[in-house]
Design brief:
The structure holds two protein chains of two kinds.
Chain A: E1 4-11, H1 14-22, H2 27-33, E2 35-38, H3 40-46, E3 53-58, E4 61-69, E5 78-82, H4 85-88, E6 104-112, H5 122-130
Parallel strand pairs in A: 1-5, 2-4
Antiparallel strand pairs in A: 1-6, 3-4, 3-6
Helix pairs in contact in A: 1-2
Chain B: E1 4-10, E2 22-27, E3 30-35, H1 39-47, E4 57-60, E5 63-66, H2 69-82, E6 86-90, H3 96-109, E7 112-115, H4 122-131, H5 138-144, E8 147-151, H6 155-158, H7 162-166, H8 179-203, E9 236-241, H9 246-250, E10 253-256, H10 262-273, E11 282-283, E12 286-287, H11 288-300, E13 303-308, H12 310-313, H13 319-332, E14 337-342, H14 349-360, E15 366-367, E16 374-375, H15 382-387, E17 393-397, H16 401-404, H17 407-415, E18 418-421, H18 427-430, E19 434-436, E20 447-450, E21 456-459, H19 472-488
Parallel strand pairs in B: 6-7, 6-17, 8-9, 8-13, 9-10, 13-14, 17-18, 18-19
Antiparallel strand pairs in B: 1-2, 2-3, 4-5, 4-19, 7-15, 11-12, 15-16, 20-21
The chains are: A alpha/beta, B alpha/beta.
Chain lengths: 133, 495
């Protein structure tokens, strides 16, 4: 399976802001945050088509999100995931004594999802990671 | 509220910009139209009732089951009164009045009260405590600023009306709006692209000619490296970020830097300001020639403002990045007027810091377990407490840490008894043990909130809350009363 080492940045998007205000259980929220914006050339290298599941792995965890072609390129080797439950699975909890975890500029690997793997909904994600829902 | 009413000058409980010029149409207690709001604010006013619980819930045998308000209050109070080291977290999406009661409750139960700035601008607060900062109100920026820098911040997405209300696209008393300039540059850009495409078809022009070392548009050779508009008297905007954001698209100039290199760039600019020679070709992915021109632009403005986002607080260096930014602004004040301001995210996160400071002396991460307030971020901050697995219960008010904390911290939060007070269904409320739905501050409840420049504004009530749904403040008061009753009866106390 092809994979690519990248630098992960998390952050806000307008759609994420709208989605969270609309409702955390809404499809709108899921569609706006369970995504990863990737440089179109990087997607091509991995053979991932837009809207197909993509696996992001860091030292802290791994999660499946929907691959989205970045409109803000070119930025080869850098990927963006909006703030939300999916991004939080893979961010660095180290606060360096400040209280603030390291949520941007994290080393990560991206690769296509295995056959049949799907991006989880919020209740599925909570069940898998916290065994409560 | 029967019939149609138009409520004007409504403050938007959306983001730290706290726009207070919204007009809301209400018909039979339903919001039908929102004017002047951004996409985020409009979604909040029109979508707030879509996914909200209207009854309290208590977890029984692993399932959340409906409960009465008094049952839920009693259960919540029992959890908190019994705990040895509870955390009380959130607070940035509610009014100052509720925050005040939350701190009283933390003192009563000997808990740690922390707000969302701990995972937002907490490092900024630490830096400001270390070195101070020169700042002003957004009104002054609107009327006087001729140079606006957004550093590691993307207001187009996170504070959508910030540029329109407070900076480049607003008509100030002493500064004109740059809106028309932007529109004409957009026209030029589009026609250039059309021309470029036509040329490509004919001549197959290579890509190299259009590229620069950091992907920036260069001026002609031998001339200045930055666009001429930055050296003019008009209002101008510079965006510094690790990726090209929507805000970067509308800026006069976009400076792309390498991730985790902001500290180096701030210090390089400070060295250049002191007229020191940099013995390298580039810093943080930016050629020194460009930094030299940039410092010229910063020095030659009349009133500059540096707005910075969490791109500085969450990356390598954290509080040291902010210290370097504040120090650059301080140095610039030897030559011109320059101020610095954090772009606060949640609409009342500034209020959370302010209320916490006047109640306890500290702005966040306040530990009351010794019976008096202690403040030592890194030790008394919620993510660190959770990562070490030290807390034994949690009260979350108006926040969703399960969605936004790193997994290891969220796991320890969920492992212990968890009480959630929130108007909406969130990732945290889905895994809580007691859920107390509340009325929405700024829509169903009046109150006070602080804008990012520390100006307090009134929140309005535009519709009636559903029956039997109380405000955060009222729910917290009921829990506090019940906790005191338990303690009086001889229950465990930790104050």
């Amino acid at each position: 399976m092809p994979s690519l080492k990248v630098l992960l940045v998390t952050g806000r998007t307008l759609r994420q802001g709208q989605g969270k205000e609309y409702g955390k259980l809404s499809e709108r929220y899921w569609k706006s945050v369970a995504i990863c914006e990737v440089d179109p050339d990087d997607l091509k290298k991995l053979g991932i088509k837009e809207n197909k599941p993509l696996k992001i792995t860091t030292d802290y965890g791994s999660v499946l999100v929907r691959a989205v072609k970045s409109l803000r390129g070119p930025h080869a080797g850098r990927v963006f995931v909006p703030y939300g439950p999916w991004a939080s699975i893979i961010v660095n909890p180290e606060t360096h004594g400040t209280g603030m975890p390291s949520l941007k500029g994290i080393q990560a690997t991206i690769e296509p999802a295995e056959e049949g793997e799907k991006v989880m909904t919020l209740p599925e994600l909570l069940r898998q990671n916290f065994r409560k829902e | 509220m029967v019939g149609m009413t138009v409520i004007s000058n409504v403050t938007c409980p959306g983001c730290g910009s706290l726009c207070d010029d919204l007009e809301i149409d209400v018909e039979n207690n339903v919001i039908t139209k929102v004017r002047n709001a951004c996409g985020m604010g409009e979604s909040k006013f029109l979508g707030y009732s879509m996914h909200r619980p209207t009854k309290p819930f208590i977890r029984k045998n692993g399932e959340l089951v409906e409960a009465s308000l008094s049952q839920a209050i009693k259960k919540a109070a029992a959890i908190l009164a019994e705990a040895s080291y509870p955390i009380l977290y959130g607070w940035s999406n509610t009014s100052c009045e509720a925050q005040r009661v939350g701190i009283e409750l933390a003192e009563e139960i000997g808990g740690v009260v922390d707000n969302t700035s701990t995972v937002c601008h907490g490092p900024s607060v630490l830096s400001i405590q270390d070195v101070g900062f020169s700042t002003c109100t957004l009104g002054q920026v609107r009327h006087r600023a001729d140079l606006v820098l957004y550093w590691a911040s993307n207001p187009w997405s996170a504070h959508p009306r910030h540029i329109e209300r407070y900076t480049n696209f607003t008509e100030g008393r002493f500064r004109s709006s740059a809106w028309n300039k932007y529109l004409s540059s957009l026209g030029t850009y589009r026609s250039e692209r059309r021309m470029g495409r036509a040329f490509k078809l004919v001549e197959e022009i290579g890509k190299a000619a259009a590229e620069t070392p950091s992907g920036l548009p260069l001026a002609e050779k031998g001339a200045r490296h930055l666009p001429h508009s930055l050296f003019e008297k008009e209002r101008k905007m510079i965006v510094v970020d690790v990726r090209k954001t929507r805000t970067a698209d509308i800026a006069d100039y976009f400076l792309q830097v390498e991730p985790n290199k902001d500290y180096e760039i701030f210090q390089a600019l400070r060295a250049l300001l002191r007229e020191e020679e940099l013995e390298v070709d580039s810093v943080g992915g930016v050629p020194v020639d460009i930094l030299e021109d940039l410092i010229d632009v910063l020095v030659s403005c009349e009133f500059g403002v540096l707005f910075f986002g969490v791109g500085l607080t969450m990356t390598a260096g954290k509080l040291r990045n902010i210290e370097a930014g504040i120090s650059l602004v301080r140095d610039l004040n030897q030559y011109t007027k320059f101020i610095i301001m954090p772009m606060r995210g949640h609409y009342n996160v500034t209020g959370a810091n302010i209320v916490s400071t006047w109640q306890t002396g500290f702005p966040f991460a306040v530990d009351m377990s010794h019976g008096y307030p202690r403040y030592n971020p890194g030790e008394t901050s919620v993510v660190d407490i959770l990562s070490r697995g030290e807390s034994d219960a949690g009260l979350i008010v108006a926040s969703d840490p399960v969605a936004h904390f790193p997994r290891s911290a969220a796991e320890n939060l969920v492992k212990n008894p968890l009480v959630v007070i929130d108007p909406e269904t969130t990732a945290t409320s889905l895994v809580a043990d007691v859920v107390l739905p509340s009325a929405i501050s700024g829509i169903e409840v009046e109150g006070t909130a602080y804008r990012m420049d520390r100006v307090p504004l009134p929140l309005k009530k535009v519709v009636q809350a559903p029956k039997a749904i109380l405000s955060d403040e009222e729910i917290l008061r009921k829990i506090l009363r019940e906790v005191r009753r338990i303690k009086k009866k001889g229950g465990r106390s930790n104050g």
